[in-house]
Amino acid sequence: NKHELNASVNFSNNKINLEFYNNFGFEKYLKINIPKLKQSLDINFDPESNLENLSGELKLKFFESILLLNFKGKDKFKISRSYLRNKFLNSKIDGEIYFKDQFNFNLNLDINQISLRKFLLSYYPVLQRGGLSKKINGKLNILIKNSSSLFGKIKNTKLDLIFENGDIRIANASSIFPENSKLESNMLISLNSSKPKVEFNIRFSAKNMKKYIRKFGVYDSDKNQTSVYANGVIDLNKNKIKFIKIIRNNNEKVGRDEIAAIENAFNRLVINEGILGVFDFFKYKKFLQETY
Q1: Which end of the chain is more exposed for a tag (fewer CB within 10 A), N or C?
Q2: What is the pLDDT of residue 214?
């Protein structure tokens, strides 16, 4: 009247414990634990769950994070009342995960609060070393209500985070910055090639640029409403940026000599130690004081 399995295996100097229990029509669960790494997977199945219609709750502990998924389905799983939490973010999750033919997902990630720079400082180096599996394909529709940064409070960030065969695409991103400022961007992050890079286009607009730029120690600006558009490529191995085009106020095209000076300052002052310099207020402060 039941299935039961207990096992342990050593893999890459780590002991992995596995326990499966299926009391027909009653309690069903699967537990996998890696004590040395402090990572575990617990799945509690609903009593009526079977191979044709699985349902229950999955709880995964990994990299000091907790992922909880309430799921129902077979080849296509409906996800509801779920979340991802760690010391950097608190989020809600719903959507769908697909296992038929190949793994894919389309999930909504509603983040109440995030410390973006600390999050990236913790997890980007791991991603950069190992790359991203080409088998991870899918889309996260992200809404970040508030995020703290040295630039001030950033509100209502919306973006589509798309995973495509080892690449990461950020599409239709927009954020509200202090002083009625807005940032819009699209990016393609390629980590798995021999020449990892970020292709980007970005637009920043401010209705009170004179007040906003004072945050960076620039006090001689006489401009109020301002916009800047730029597109280009960042070489992640060399920590070098190459601007293809920069346009101010929708129609003022920046000349090649001035672009070269901006590239030089950006490489020297912002990303000289790596791409995460783009989230460093003090690096931007030096850059803007030299180029604005």
Answers
A1: N
A2: 83
Which residue is listed with tokens 């910055």? 177
Residue 150 is predicted with a pLDDT of 66
Contact between residue 58 and residue 83 where contact means Cβ atoms under 8 Å apart: no
The pLDDT averaged over each successive group of 10 residues in the chain (292 residues) is 93 93 90 94 92 93 92 95 91 94 92 80 71 85 84 87 92 90 94 87 89 80 80 95 94 94 96 88 89 84
Q: Is 120 exposed, middle or buried (0-12, 13-18, 19+ CB in 10 A)?
A: middle
Which distant-in-sequence residues (6+ apart) come within 8 Å of 59 by Cβ? 41, 42, 43, 66, 67, 68, 69
With a CB cutoff of 8 Å and minimum separation 6, the contacts of 38 are 61
Q: Of all helices (H) and strands (E), which one includes residue 240?
A: strand 240-248
AA letter at 252: E
Q: Which of 200, 92, 70 is nearest to 145 (CA)?
A: 92
Stated pTM of the model:
0.85
Residue whose entry in the numeric block shows the structure tokens 């508030």 = 146
93/82 Cα distance (integer angstroms): 5
Q: Is-contact 264 242, C-beta < 8 A?
A: no
What is the rounded distance in angstroms from the CA atom of residue 265 to the CA atom of residue 268? 5
